[in-house]
């Protein structure tokens, strides 16, 4: 079965690559698109340019085309908007959940976003605008406002009937917030608890104490503490504790995945693509990288300036230049290790901004121990080949550079978070440049002192 599906997908790709698609090929393509699992069709769309991807969506059945479009990243959806016909656009947009609509609208030009909003019916337009009313990065921006209203005074039978009637209109019926008549959150029930209870049992008797978040809470922080709880959904309340929506488990997982991808990209000196690599235009790939390369190129001038200042020292002891790559590389790697560890701890909530002194003290000791070990090895090897004085310079420099790099690398992500910047931005690229420049200064100062230059 797997081999047949793979062959079929390869055939689809060959047809899509054709410059001129004949009518009989379109019929063949439509027939083949009805066969593979939905995830294979999503993969096909993600690997196609917008024009061909739009063609695939038009040839799918209505249900499958909506499922495929809904599975795409918002940035990819936005790229497809220009290649789709107006009728297709409105249909796909109307079928999206309110939070997914808002994510797509954030990627579109204002005039297109306004046109899409105008074509929604009043009810769908209202719930979409509710989500759009919350700031970007907040839980409210990622929640679903479509929630079944279940009261604590209801019996299990009444609640089941209410869920049955509203199942098609709400995000989920498997995690049920229980509210008072003024919509203040009172408790939480699973569908199983309601289904297995006696018909005349009131929800107030079986509901659990509510675990909830507020609509203005940070989406990433909330998602990270919510996922390990293994709940299907998390009630979202406003400042007066009234229920305004649900954050589902899969939406929380998407938030964490997006943030991890963003941190990974920025720690490597580029911007996140926010859509599959093969469907990303080359120009967009260039834009995601070139700014950071320019920033790093400018910052690397610091290293050149340091070498220029100590040019006379290098001319007296040329041997010192042989160890520059070793020392700068060791300092950068040490700082990157510390920064990556602390950035991850910040994301998981293990470290907070107020812990900066504790983190610096901890990383200072880690750097000191690593520096002592590497310095001892460096001293022995350099002393055997170039003499004891050079060995002493290398050993002392490794000790100082590792201590400095670990301390600074551990502190920078916390400093970044304190000033509202992304901790990942202050990770590998900037720390490497910083440690290169300061490491060279330390190196030449120790050399001048030990060698009497």
From TrEMBL:
Tell me how this protein sits in the membrane: Multi-pass membrane protein
- Kindly list the places in or outside the cell where this protein is found, as annotated in its UniProt entry: Cell membrane; Membrane
Read off the InterPro entries from this record: CBS_dom, CBS_dom_sf, Mg_transptr_MgtE_intracell_dom, MgtE_N_sf, MgtE_transporter, SLC41_membr_dom, SLC41_membr_dom_sf
| A GO-annotated cellular component | plasma membrane
Task: Please indicate if the UniProt record lists Oxidoreductase as a keyword.
Answer: no
Q: Name one Pfam family in it.
A: MgtE_N
**Which GO MF terms does the UniProt record name?**
magnesium ion transmembrane transporter activity; metal ion binding
Q: Where are the transmembrane segments?
A: 366-386, 392-416, 428-451
User: Gene3D superfamilies, from UniProt?
Assistant: CBS-domain (3.10.580.10), MgtE N-terminal domain-like (1.25.60.10), SLC41 divalent cation transporters, integral membrane domain (1.10.357.20)
Name the protein family: Belongs to the SLC41A transporter family.
Q: Subunit notes for this chain?
A: Homodimer.
Write out the function statement from the record. Acts as a magnesium transporter.
- Protein name according to UniProt: Magnesium transporter MgtE
